[in-house]
Structures
1.
Amino acid sequence: MCRWLAYSGEALKPAELILDAQHSLVAQSLNSPLGAETVNGDGFGFGWYPEGTKAGSTPALFHSTEPAWNDENLRELTNSILSPLFFGHVRAAGGPPIQQTNCHPFRYENWMFMHNGFLDGFAKMKRDLTFSVDESLYPLIHGTTDSEVMFYLALTLGLQDDPIGAMTKTVQRIEEVGESKGIRFPMQGTIALSDGATLWAFRYSTSGRSRSLYHSVAIPELREMYPDAARLEVFGDKAKVVVSEPLNDIPGAFVEVAESTVAILTDAGYHHEPFMARADD
């Protein structure tokens, strides 16, 4: 459906990953070997926390309905700013129209959210799910995607206090509504979520066949493995990236996130926890 990346670490020009990497996000918008669709040209989004902003600050967003490979503003922007945490997303529209309000990432206060995948049978579930969103948040849903409804449902269910718990309740609600509508596999996707300090990356689907998801190996480890790799000099020791598919072909540079898992990335490193794990997993 889409491709995305999320970076956390020392302040970096986002173009290093979005434009300049071997298999950058823009390259994946043209040719995505691991994606459900090869081309992801139905708009894009870029969200970032500016360098030097305080914890709890609101991130900035740039959305466009242009294909990412055809937007000079994206090149100008990502080469001109520094950010310690940013999201990038290229879209392959699976039904909802191509419009800026349907481009990821989505934002609420200091939180950003993006999704690759879909809610199967969303047309049947939409009324029940949107009516589950708190009435104070409902007017903030500006687009028509299942992803945005999922984000505001998670906010309703306590995202700001307990991100993993809220996402668990959100998926449970989706599956509950899906089951009531006769939808066998309602949830599919990978999700990135951040409050500006921590980055959570979820991989889960009801069918157990989720979209691909990887994160980078720690930079100090990579420097030990590849001491002559000049490309690594761009990144600080805390640099980490979560991606729909690897940004390069360097063996050992990326680790696959397992099914029914959330990867949690902070300045201290990363670890994995089970997410919505089933007894047969």
Note: The chain has one domain: 2-274.
2.
Amino acid sequence: MLPQSVLSFWETIRTGNEGPELLLDPNLKLWALIPISIVMILVGVAKQCIMVLVSPKSKTVPRVKLTEILYIAKARALMGNSSNLSTESFKMRQEYLAQVLADGKYLAIKPAKDEKTAMENPFTSPGMTDAMTSMALGNLVNYIPQTVIMWWVNYFFAGFVLMKLPFPLTIRFKQMLQSSVRTDDLDVRWVSSMSWYIISMGGLTPVYNVLFGGNRLSKLNVSAQQQQLSQSPGGPNPKDQMKALANDITVFQHISVLDNIEDRVLKLYS
């Protein structure tokens, strides 16, 4: 039978405790943990609604411009995913896209108009102005609520220990999880109120994605901004892009994973 001190020592090592065990008041969950979480969710909902209200209205893209953008993207996608095509399929697409892009068949703007607008100031275009205004409003909407909530948590819940994580952590996480709690011998798994707020800032992103479809909405916003930048004066010239892509596709070295796949399969299972 081992002494009690030895048993306690091995129990400490097994559980991963680095300090004294705490007994938390159950009311902390009702008056600190849950309110902080609810306020974070409500503020995220409010920020999303404000962003929808202040964001500029999406402009419709003409069909010829959309065709131009899609053919440029198609050429890049062909070179990026060429290994998934057979040699015959790649050569067929290579010859077609190289000829179409070199001739500029699907250019939305005539070369004369491109040469005229190339010397204009890009910061005076409506598309660039809308993009910069939307970016500034987005930063403002994100900065003000975070400052207010951080002051609220720091003022009313400073020094509170709210919960204990069920898995062990190294000592490097102590500064991140125990902000505003000045205790050196406390177990790393204990989480303070300020740290819970910081963790919730990134941890609630999947919740916002479920509520608002955040991934799909962000992709649409990025695509809209790219289209505005491509339409603005001083942006990349579609004619030059198509000529460069035509040259790249012409000299592209194609290596397919489907070449001689029948012989390789028969050799593998024969």
Note: The two ends are 63 Å apart (CA to CA).
3.
Amino acid sequence: MLADDDGADVQSGGFSPDLHHPKAWLHQLIDFILDQLPAWRDRPGRRAADSETQLTSQLCAHLNGVARKSSGWDVLQFRIEEPDETKLARRIDLIAAPAGEVIWIEGRRHDDFDPLLPIECKRLPTPKGKDRDKREYLRVANGSTGGVQRFKAGLHGAAHEQAVMIAYVQAGGIAAWIQRLDCWIRTLSRAGISGWSCDDRLNTVSHDALRRVAVLSSEHERELTLPRIGLRHLWIEM
């Protein structure tokens, strides 16, 4: 549920007066998504799925249904495979955007066509394949399909300073993956891989073993003279 914001005029239906939110509102939105992850995973009738595309499509449908019926969040819509705002040839896995409203955040205007929050989704472990890299959540050795890598390079979310990565943990458990990714980042740093250092490490914010979800955070320097970007990592054991 959306916490009350001073000066925020939240209305539903039609085109209401513009909504003004502080930057912290994005963290409330991220908390809303986090809260819905286990509800979506455990939802009766949800069809079994393994692929990233299927899982993200299901999650998008769930978030839209819940947002539409939730006071304060009914001003939002979620969409999949959206073109990036600055790199139109590239697709964002999932976005949150206004739904028939104009939402201002820190002086920036957003309407139906402007993503509020870009979201990249990955499976852990990375599916095996000829051209797949086990460290794909972070980076790939040959290519630009790494999750964190895309944000660091400005290939995703260049117009944003806050983004989200969702991990569908399908084997190994959250605790093991926290250690594994930390080891990988340290290895990238020691190997002198361009653009990577221990400053890119993920910090655990919370880990709910009962609901099998976790939140991690990271901040990254970006290329193209872009400002640093903050990532919230929402992990759910499937």
Note: The two ends are 24 Å apart (CA to CA).
4.
Amino acid sequence: MENNLDYNTELQGKIALVTGGTKGIGKAIAESLSQAGATVIITARNLPKDVNKAHNFIAADLSQTEIITKLANEITEKFGRIDILINNMGANTLPGGGFSTLTDEHWDEALQVNLLSSVRLDRALLPNMLAQKAGVIIHVSSTSGMFPLWEATMAYSAAKAALNAYSKSLASEVSQHGVRVITVSPGLNKTEAMSAFLEDLANKAGITMEEMTQNLMARVGGIPLGRMAEPEETAALVRFLVSPRASYITGANYAIDGGNFPVV
């Protein structure tokens, strides 16, 4: 069968929201969706100096319920709808060291940033998707949600595991109404956040960043491809999943980890 699809325009006319879209994986996703023809809205707490002027930036702290409501209203007023929602917000900034180092405040922060912000944003934007009987929601999780490291990612991993379960449940509920919900679980990505995480671990261990990088790769069982992912590689998967080419995919969790995940 002849394929006449133009990948550079396959998202033409679509309106996409990418949370955490000013750096790292979120920035790469925003760029990729824009290249495919989508109108892209990005959110973050602060506007960086190097933001792509072609993207529509809205400042928002998505850990606050009232801000999410305000964001949803602003999007509806300015753009009318959302066709693609990329819930990319998330962070592992809590202290390592296991259960004894994590306070109730730490646990609450992990859940707010890595789970509940996505739940609330879905709740705010899903009604319009359901009304138009079309839409795609991507939850950017982490392989840490399936492979936790007690000494470094305990609360973060627990929150991401909860996001995985929520995403699967939501897909089962809304896919029959035309809205696809998919989880993407990146492994180690070469981002600013990862560099800061590795630097902190290296300083605590008294070793170099290069040594800590190798230690972390070994700790997660090794990466057959032998390197971290570039954010653009993760973005390429997301771009495919939100496109018409992936129209029969929903409820799945895609690990993009260079072959790291140690189970079949």
Note: The mean pLDDT is 91.
